[in-house]
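hi!! sorry for the late reply, been swamped w classes. u asked for the two structures so here they r. pasted raw, havent cleaned anything up. first the sequence of the first protein and right below it the tokens
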Amino acid sequence: MNLTYSVEELAKILSAEISGKYNGIISNIKPLSSARIGDLTFYYDTKYKDLFEKSLSSCIIVKLDTQIEPKENQVFLKVENPYKSLIQLLKIIDNNKHKKKSEIHHTSIIGKNSKISDNVHISANCVIGENCILANGVKLMPNVVIYDDVTINSNTVINSNVSIYSDTEIGSNCIIHSGAVIGSDGFGYLENSKTGEYDKIPQLGNVIIEDDVEIGANTTIDRALVGSTIIHKGSKIDNLVHIAHNCELGENTGVAAQVGISGSVTSGKNCRFGGQVGIAGHLEITENVTIYAQSGVSKSIDKSGVYFGSPVKEHLRAFKIEAVQRKLPEIYENIGKLEQKINEINSKIGD
């Protein structure tokens, strides 16, 4: 990370108590298992006690009540919650890392009637269509392509090679990672029953992404047939996710990698979809629903809770079914033995 913090500077940032002594500079942050001289690490769980006690790290963020003393030329920064303190520090480092002066690179292309605020950063080879609006603090990394009539609100970061189709609206403080495609056509066709050919249905809606949304690398969000595909405020979407046309994702929903959501699905707020979850089209999922990885949703879910399986069931019931399925070979064998005994008994009765 190429840091240049003193122990005293870190303690001030984290409002930490200093235990021990180290006069050098902290130049990197590493995991407890690999941190060495000049590194900062953190210890928050007793299951890592062995690693903690053997650590050669120069600086370790620990809990306030830690009784172990630091080694020679080692310092502890004592805080209430080491993990939260680490995140606080990472945010500061990340903000400093991504500070860029406002400039428009000479290789970028900006269409007519587009409104670019004074402190927007536009990197090399970006293409911005006509009638676009880029608000204060927007950052476009190299090779971003934005079609016509797109609005991007304040402090949103669009990373390299993102494509944003026409009429998309993106809120403030969003992050869109490399390779994402926002506003591509929904998968809409009319099949000719006689010839088997497909007639494309024009997709004339748009995508609306509200504030504080993060979208992972190579994720695609399709525009609506008509109306809008909507990702509500605070939602976090992982890499390699597909969200189809006319979907509506509720506030603060988390979607893990390789999830596929078919067209016209509506989900409530605070939902969690594990990796490789598949959701069939035109379903409604209520709020506060968690769906475990690799589950398949074929019917609407109208009760908050945790679900698993394909098709999904309430998770405890699904686990019981799984447990029984694992024993099916033994159960089958036992049934065969019972049938044999019954046949023997019937044969004796017959005699």
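now the second protein. again sequence first, tokens right under
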Amino acid sequence: MSRVLIVDDDVAFRLSTAELLRLDGHEVTTACDAVEAGEALDAQEFDLLLLDLRMPGTDGLGLIEVLRRRGERAPILMISGFGTIDSAVDALQLGADDFLTKPVEPDVLSRRVSELLERRPLPDRAAEGGPGGIVGETPAMAKVFEAIRQVAPTETTVLVFGETGTGKELVAHAVHDLSCRSRGPFVPVNCAALAEGVLESELFGHVRGAFTGAIREKPGLFAAADEGTVFLDEVGDMSLRLQQRLLRVLQEREVTPMGGVQARPVNVRVIAATHRDLPAEVEAGRFRDDLYYRLNVFPVRLPPLRERRADVPLLIEAALSRLRERSTTEVPLSVAPMALRLLQEHNWPGNVRELFSVVERAAIRVEGSRIEVQHLPRELRGHDPETEGGPAAGKGTRYRAGPDSADERAAIQAALEESNGVRARAAELLGMSRTTLWRKMREYGLPLA
């Protein structure tokens, strides 16, 4: 049961709204002004705050500022009367998450309350995570966790498939940590980051005089990982000649250093990873089929972030927790529901790595305790020439207004229909800010509730 606080000086609205939300299954507390609201908030925590804009004493705008300064994390739904839309937009900029205009249809109010409660900040569960501290609760990640637990106790070679930034090394580390080799070394090697000759020397070692500058013998990383695990990241970028050498290691469990003739036995487990489509690479002749079969004994597919959007809130909390651990300055406690919506709707071509980067950048911009929409990069929130000095139609804008107001009104209606009424998404499609969208909706007489 969710706890909702209604703050409104209109007795009839306060009581009728409280009854409506109680019928929806919520626990409701009411207050007539900011003073009573403060007393209620001191007494217990709430999952949602419903505030009137115009009240005697401290009004809704002033109350929002007070609440956000004291670190209140609950979503705020602002209620305003006709003629106060501009002030309601100001409320959104101060930290409110949504607003409705009076009179409010009961079904509209119920739906908005449910939407905001679904997007309220989650408790800190990120620390629990899966194997190796990997964060995720979606069915796609549950399959990954099960695969890790199944293969870890064995000596089987593992091949991790996944786009760049999905966390392939975390999976490899988790397999190592849960294996009988966990006391041995875990040696990661990025096969795409080194030139062929350097990679060969790093992996297999070399004898003295093997090449110019080889003044002493070097054992190589396979030898250094003895009794442990070698993680070959981006193995699909390895040259065909080195693929042949790697195949021998997997088949014979021995390594011949560069310039040497004597093979040396090695006891290592190999975990490989790639963002490439290896069957297609085999078909194109860029990857050896025999090596592919040796590596692909136990495949693990790591889903991209766009296929597990429900994990975004947990990943955000994990990112903020890591920032708190290493930061000497204040780090935001939460993300506003509207900002969270935009973060979940983004496709994340850079996956978890990109998400963590965006959260860190937003956290630096925040002065209060919560990340708001304005703290996010422009490509996530759309942009507006009045606020950011750019053209109204961004690079990804899908709807472009024509030369007259009728065309612009039609474009706004089309964007709202495609986004199912989600105004943040509609603003992104139109290439304008939410503030401009609200103003134009009012100007053209489009429904604001």
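hope this helps!! also noticed smth abt the second:
The chain has 20 helices and 14 strands.
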